[in-house]
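Model: You mentioned two targets. I'll fold them one after the other.
Researcher: Yes, keep them separate.
Model: Target one:
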Amino acid sequence: ILAQQETESPILDVPVDLYGAQGPAGSYMLYQTVHQQPIVGGYISRTPPSALSIFEYPFIHQLRARLYNDHEPYAFSSELIAAAESDLEALGIHYVILHKDALSEQEAVLLYDVIYEVLADPIHEDQYIVVWERDL
């Protein structure tokens, strides 16, 4: 689906990871070589502070990968969910991909439910990923 898009369609991979060494960002960059779409994420060895600016968006910040002693549980207030669409819009995100295989089963279910509440029905789901398309 994504590789067939004729225009650039920014993708947000969840859990969001910008650091890469121990998280899923390296895999996200590999997937990007297949679908050829811009991603919100990925990593370089010395992440500049400006690259972390996406975490200034509360909804995106809450979707981050729990790495490097960050064990804060995922938590989504009704206010956070209500603001989610504006965070996605501000970053120009067209697709959201939930990588179930990068999460515990409990985390995957929680994040699925939250993203479903924001974006409704996914356009694709298999045992590894769920893909949502935002109406632009």
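Model: Target two:
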Amino acid sequence: LQRGGLSSEALLAALRAENAARCSPPLSDDEVCKIVKSIARYAPGSEGDRGDEAEKLVDLVLHRHFADGKHLLFGADGQYWRYTGKMWTVAQDKWIEGRILASVKLAPFKVKQNTSSLVAQVYKLLAAQLSSETDRLGILDDPPSVINCSNCEVWILPNGTIEQRSHRPESFLRHCLDVKYEPAAKCPEYDKALLGIFAK
């Protein structure tokens, strides 16, 4: 329908009808909307110019599961890393393959290849596309002067001052403390210990 030039609005209506009539249980409306959004990313065209299935699935996996690729990378350590919303963590191979398989099942085009070989192709293409010569996660470098807390990133600047920042993938932090940063918090025991040490 999309290749034939149907608008996104009409496509959404058609998919909602098909979903209600054929899917048991039906997908949520949210999921149907995501599928339409994903389909709309491809330009209308003929069956002959569909392009490589694996390459299209790479785009689909990154779009559906990893914020268009902003939340997945292939590290200098030879592992996949995913961003959780607060930090980067190792993504197990089978977990990545599961995201690929889910995208194959919901692909907005007819998949002609064998599923297992297609999953393997997409897995390798993802690694090639996401790998970088630079060690973005700082695996081989000294850690930055930052404490990643559950509610924010606390950066210690060269002059000793503190800067509170929102979590963001571009910080490439690999650890997060399960502690909230509260700038106005008091610590009487710590203060008492300091006074005891430095009292004249």
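Researcher: Noted. Anything on target two?
Model: The chain is about 40% helix and 10% strand.
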